[in-house]
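Hi Y.,

Following your request, here is the sequence exactly as I used it, all 312 residues.
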Amino acid sequence: MSQHQFYGAPLRVVELLNDNTVVPFPNQAWSSKPEEKGIGLHTVLGLRADENGVVWMLDNSDGTEAGKILGWDTENDELYQVIYLPQPIIAENSFLNDLAVDLDHNAIYLTDTAGGDNSALIVVDLNTGFSRRVLEGDISTRPEDIPLIVDERVINMAGKPAKVGANPITVDPNNEWVYYAPMSSTSLYRIATADLLDPALTLEDLSSRVERYGDKPICDGITVDGAGNVYITSITDNAIGVVDAAGTYQTLYQDKKLLSWTDGMAFSPDDYIYVTVSQLQNSPPLNNGENTFKAPFYLVRFPALASGKVGR
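Below is the corresponding structure, written out as tokens. Let me know if you'd prefer a different format.
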């Protein structure tokens, strides 16, 4: 699990063991701030495991170095791959948020929230390391003008009402569709992987291929099963919901304590969906400089409505 940078945790990524203790992942050196040899991570938010046992971590730029995607081979406990994401692939105000792994096409799709008006998707070729920034400022990546209200409080960031662009992203089990959305949006979108992977398509061409999949609340994380159900972390009402294949949203679970700002989601081998709960509204950047989280943080799970792919 990644530890959100808004809390200033010294470890970027940790592993939760069966005895309910946590250890640095993949090890102390890589989970800490980078040192002179370049080993380490700046700030990780997006994290995904693929079917080959590689854990992919999305590391933000610190302003002096490029962002990067780091893959760790958990079977052999060794570094698998590093792909750097320099400007202009990432924006000057980049905030690399989440990622989806597609091994059928040897690609990773990720969201750069950036400043909202320049939010975008980034398509990464795992064979070559070549990356493309796409759909920047598109209606499907930029935020709507709606307030983010959690626990009956309007959430501000840097002194302004928080309006967050492209954030959650996932790819279906057949690697045919990428689902994504701005956090601050009432719409869930999807686009065919074949279109995202086509470098010949212009921004206008690509934008015309985007489909509005359905309604959604303000959310932070998503995943999708094989029946087209897209699961949503609804942060404004402490809930988890789902958008079905007809585009209709419904709440599945709601709990003010256990689901206080639900964030990342991932399928397990037994078709449970695991969800991290971050209480992010209580972190200093979103809480007028005060850290008021209440321990413990939770990892919860629930049964999916249909089978999915491990790590999605």
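Residues 203-209 form the longest helix (7 residues).

Thanks again,
Q.
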